[in-house]
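Supplementary Methods. Inverse-folding protocol.

Structures were first reduced to a discrete structure-token string of length 198. This string, shown here, constituted the complete conditioning input.
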């Protein structure tokens, strides 16, 4: 309910930002105000979407469209949706996929969302600029996707809690970088719904 209530005011704020665009007429102050509004509305929208998704996942209400999908397509989609965060940190992305295209049965949008959450987390906690590597490989009858970064890592004592809803290892750092502590929870739940894990 909270997520839906938070979403309601976002549309009028976004509309106000679009009205500002028509009034700008090379006024740098209005341009800057509009850009701030659009950026923050986008950020709030993503947070609300994550809250709704993680609630649905926890209640088993995420519906999956299961198709045969190519893993490299999932990786491309996840990278595209992570582009802004990667660029903001001036990170270099390296993608290692096998020559033979691998397929899985699953929901391409949800799988890309889970991977994008992992990439976003890596970008957030990697000191700028850094290298983030996505690796894809076949392992027996499964496909393994890894996301490696040069960040601070996860404290071994916190590791059992890393996938709990709203869990954050260093809350002061996490707060300064934004986020609710739902990305890893959602990524893991999506993987589990596909018979996998994170």
């Amino acid at each position: 309910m909270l997520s839906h209530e938070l979403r309601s005011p976002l549309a009028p704020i976004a509309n106000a930002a679009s009205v500002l665009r028509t009034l700008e007429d090379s006024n740098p102050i209005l341009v800057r105000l509009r850009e701030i509004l659009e950026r923050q509305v986008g950020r709030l929208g993503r947070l609300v979407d994550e809250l709704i998704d993680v609630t649905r996942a926890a209640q088993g209400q995420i519906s999956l469209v299961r198709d045969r999908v190519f893993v490299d397509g999932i990786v491309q989609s996840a990278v595209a949706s992570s582009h802004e965060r990667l660029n903001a940190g001036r990170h270099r992305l390296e993608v290692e996929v096998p020559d033979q295209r691998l397929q899985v049965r699953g929901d391409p949008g949800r799988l890309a969302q889970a991977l994008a959450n992992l990439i976003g987390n890596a970008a957030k906690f990697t000191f700028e600029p850094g290298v983030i590597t996505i690796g894809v490989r076949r392992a027996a009858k499964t496909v393994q996707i890894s996301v490696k970064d040069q960040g601070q890592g996860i404290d071994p004592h916190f590791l059992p809690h890393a996938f709990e809803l709203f869990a954050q290892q260093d809350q002061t750092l996490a707060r300064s970088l934004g986020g609710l502590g739902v990305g890893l929870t959602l990524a893991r739940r999506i993987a589990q719904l596909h018979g996998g894990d994170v």
